[in-house]
């Protein structure tokens, strides 16, 4: 027999329907019509999972949820709300709700949400307002740095990982948004499931629907076989939607529908398929600004922006820059067979003073460049790329570094064609505020071309 | 727009055509209803229909009491109650696949949030007519359902 569930819903027909759906799926339900009756049942029966309508006749559902979590922090609470009060659902998720359902609730969605909640191991989330439980625990994998800003990030990742809550990661390019997403997955109950990353800005618009939702054979010219799509590939795990603000407006309602129903309909298919996927998404833009400009749907924004995590830029991470540089130096030196032992004191000071507009990615490129072109034992200022040192010119204005000005033709003299190409591409990306898709449009190439080239430069450690 | 807007009756009728929901019988997405009945099981269908009928009647009763009265006849509309009943109606109609009535309820909710009495006067009669017709339609659909 499955553990008992508590359902608190004041509309009789809905209470009956939800109860009947869950009982038909094999669950045992206790139902209540008011907050008072619901709390009595909560204390008497100690259910592991509670389905809670946020609009109750005698009390605000959010305060009921807080009272339940304060009494038994391990309880998984699934809140039910209407589209009109989606902000309340967002507030509930931030206050510790496990998941939320929007009325009218699809039967399969309610069953999946409950089953997900029951699958979660007995690791209670922190009580709202409590200090993170993991202080002193080893840091989340993939990240280096022990600054206060990163300690907060580690704590947030650990707090949100056990939940089904959608996470929206923001931050400049190169700050580690994908590593953050991977860490959330690795620390979640879905860690044994797949982690599928999809760059919404790197895939041509006409292929994106097929990439996300899949297609069946013959759905369009070139569809020679069935393809499952990222959402199906991520079934049982996490789907990471990078550069989500670049997603085509025409596809956004389909993503919204997917989030609401947990079903996908591959292109050309007639029947939807149920999937169990947690969504983590990221952008290097201000998502609210994208909503204001009309390029990102407001309803989708509220669906996704449940638990926000902002990755701090490297310039705000204090001594992390040195810690990361030293770790990278050790790794790259081993890979390249060089005898580096550390950073000279002047280099450390220089690294701390730089604005790092390309963040960790830029720092790693610099260290790779140093290791490839020099040998140890200490990294000195003379080994650093010229352009990097020039950017510390005291005559330069304070604040975050502006993207380098587009090079005049004279300054290109003496450079290789590959170097000129890199300069032009990076300048275009900088002109578009870090947006690779927009830069790709300007340069009339596919975004994937630019991503591929940048990956190659990162691996090769080249600096123009 | 305030409650007291008089305005030209012809213009009001034109606006009414633009905003009111259909006065005809409510549309029902039978596939949605089949899905619901299949999920709860055939033996639970009669009780669900009975509760839906009661809930829809309760929404209509409360809505009627909360709607704006003609000007100068207090009390004014009970905006919170209209919002609350529209909220319930959205959930009920969405659950059974009465999509046209659901859209009407969403417009009613938006009008109540905006405290637009004129819009509510245009929308509400159609909603109440469809509310009255929906239980019969549900019973008829259930009788023809394999569930």
Automatic annotation (TrEMBL), chain A:
Residue ranges constituting the Response regulatory domain according to the UniProt record: 4-118
Record InterPro entries: AAA+_ATPase, AAA_lid_NorR, CheY-like_superfamily, Homeodomain-like_sf, HTH_Fis, P-loop_NTPase, Sig_transdc_resp-reg_receiver, Sigma_54_int
Annotated region described as Disordered, given as residue ranges: 121-144
SUPFAM superfamilies listed in its UniProt record: CheY-like (SSF52172), Homeodomain-like (SSF46689), P-loop containing nucleoside triphosphate hydrolases (SSF52540)
Tree of life domain: Bacteria
Presence of keyword Flavoprotein: no
Gene3D superfamilies listed in its UniProt record: 1.10.8.60, 3.40.50.2300, Homeodomain-like (1.10.10.60), P-loop containing nucleotide triphosphate hydrolases (3.40.50.300)
Sigma-54 factor interaction domain boundaries: 143-372
PROSITE patterns: RESPONSE_REGULATORY (PS50110), SIGMA54_INTERACT_2 (PS00676), SIGMA54_INTERACT_3 (PS00688), SIGMA54_INTERACT_4 (PS50045)
Keyword Glycoprotein: no
Keyword set, alphabetical order: Activator, ATP-binding, DNA-binding, Nucleotide-binding, Phosphoprotein, Transcription, Transcription regulation, Two-component regulatory system
PANTHER family recorded: PTS-DEPENDENT DIHYDROXYACETONE KINASE OPERON REGULATORY PROTEIN-RELATED, TRANSCRIPTIONAL REGULATORY PROTEIN
Name the record gives this protein: Sigma-54 dependent transcriptional regulator
Annotated organism of origin: Ruixingdingia sedimenti
Automatic annotation (TrEMBL), chain B:
Family annotation (SUPFAM superfamilies): Histidine-containing phosphotransfer domain, HPT domain (SSF47226)
Protein name, UniProt field: Hpt domain-containing protein
